[in-house]
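subagent[fold] <- orchestrator: predict structure for attached chain, return tokens only, no commentary.
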Amino acid sequence: MRSVHAGAPLDTKERPYVSNYITTSKYTAWNFLFLNLFEQFRRLANFYFLIISILQVIPGLSPTGRFTTLAPLCIVIAVTMLKEAFEDIVSFPVKLHVSRKDCAFYVFHVFCFALYGMITETTQR
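subagent[fold] -> orchestrator:
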């Protein structure tokens, strides 16, 4: 827990604090594939077709072709992944613009003004 005392300077050189950076994007470059596949197969229809595709790959179990369900499922998943990536990339500048706006907030009977993540002025109201 971080304690900040009013009027005391912050000595961040002695004890560096953890950043309070907030991200509003759904994916990063590192977790896009795994999170997106998890989100895709949480949908009941996609999960159902995955199970059917796995069963159809077994030679003695399916009277139809091996990849008749797997190919359309892969196409649907790929198109949805591209759409999600496009939406996440396009929404980034909009979210960045909104997060850099001035804001006012009220904390413990003190009205504060903040500009891009830092308190610039406090007034008693």
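orchestrator: received. Logging for downstream: The two ends are 28 Å apart (CA to CA). The mean pLDDT is 76.
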